[in-house]
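To whoever is covering the structure queue this week,

Two jobs came back overnight. Logging them here so there's a record in the thread.

Job A:
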Amino acid sequence: MSTTVKFLTKNFGQYDTASIGSYMNIGGFTALRQAVNMNPEDICTLLSEAKIRGRGGAEYPLGRKWSQARAVQGENKIVVCNADEGETTTFKDRELIKNDPFNLIEAMIIAGFVCGATDGYIYMRGEYACYRPLLLNAIRQAKNYGFLGENILGKGFDFNIHLYSGGGAYVCGEGTALIRSIEGKAGRPRMKPPFIKVSGLFARPTCLNNVESLSLVPHLLTDKETYMNCGSGESIGTKLISVAGNVNNPGVFEIPFGTTVREIIYGLAGGVQHDRKIQLIQFGGASGKVADSSVLDTPYTYDDLRAAGVMVGSGGLLVIDERTSVLDFLRMNQEFFSEESCGQCTPCREGNLHIKIILDKMAHGAATSEDIKTMGTIARVMSMSSLCGLGETAQNTLQSAMKTFPDVFALGGTNS
């Protein structure tokens, strides 16, 4: 039976989330006081030593990102927190916002100090509207206590935080689409370069981070040893994961890297409902790759999962039992991307449409071997030529399924 750890989640249930005084009674803002007396580059070095990779799915090293953001020349820099969390089966960031809002505010202030920013923006998905009052209250109280505004802690550091809600578009989880949405424009990606670290929100240098990535920083500053003593190999520390699907105990768990997939599903998540067999497991949300039960003894680390043909991604695990066919699952997944594609670039717009058509033909026994070949070609073209990460990763599920479940695609079980 696997057990969870409490590093990132150690504040959960320990204070009144509506009271900054309650947060300070358990050590809140100690990390900020420590940070403003440090060399910002030393904080970047600490993040690099901890080998923290972006927790939103891209896995870009956090220490490197902050160091690069700090090095960019420009005034009025911006830090953006991506709290859109539109990836299906992923709901870990929601738990951080709900259970530890002041830690997120503290983390953003530290990020602003390190990167040399004057403003922070939290972009929260529209479906999380019930948590707006919680964050707005945390921002207001932090300002009243002098942790936001001008000359923070007497260090000549000015920083303010603003909260924006999205309209529910999955594509706005992509950095440039998110930025355009905050600017009041249609939430569609734009070409890069210029990269957002040079010209992002309101054409100002911008550093964008995921909720979990940011939330780690205050804890790491005050308790580096605990974090560094967790994990396995190059995957140091802990990870928040969201487990959903046909399991007895779905939820969010904080695990040390190195916990096996079997321990997660059969330990923390309570096993598969009614002891049914696993049909497939999807890692990292709708844009994640799938595997069969052969991965159960794989350690949950970046390198081990990649070697097994899947990935950490957004930290979601979706368990599908034998009642659902692989083809039905792929059709459902494709419905999502056909709906959520912004339609701006041809590979994604047309590719998602035609793959949906072919999957439907397979389901009705009308697909040919040429259809299957065409579908694979479209998926490859999308991954190489789409404008943004949505189109590039939309067919991860299909491509991995074609490798893992070749029998499903043997003429589609249909006419040749």
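Job B:
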Amino acid sequence: MIVDVNPRHPAWLVNWRQRHQSGLSFWLHVVGIPLTILAVLLAGYQLYQWRWDIWWRPMLLLGIGYLLQYLGHLHEGNDMGEIVLIKRLLGRPYVAISPRYQK
């Protein structure tokens, strides 16, 4: 998949599309990102309700969401955003865009 970079799109979206060019990676993220957001919202709601007995529900959603995103990056051949940030802070080399998609 070749990413069509539209200058009207915000820079963060252009960057995200460049890092997720594989169709499989893109769709794994389309499912995984909302699951992680839902996990955070559910955890907040459960804490508000003081429901510590069902802590596993947001953790399960978070785990599945991150697993799907990890599999997408594994297929894509690049590092996850959080890993890129940590490696950058530590001065370590990282792969932001998969070598097969670099110009």
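Note for Job B: The chain has one domain: 17-101.

Please reply-all if you pick these up so we don't duplicate work.
Q.
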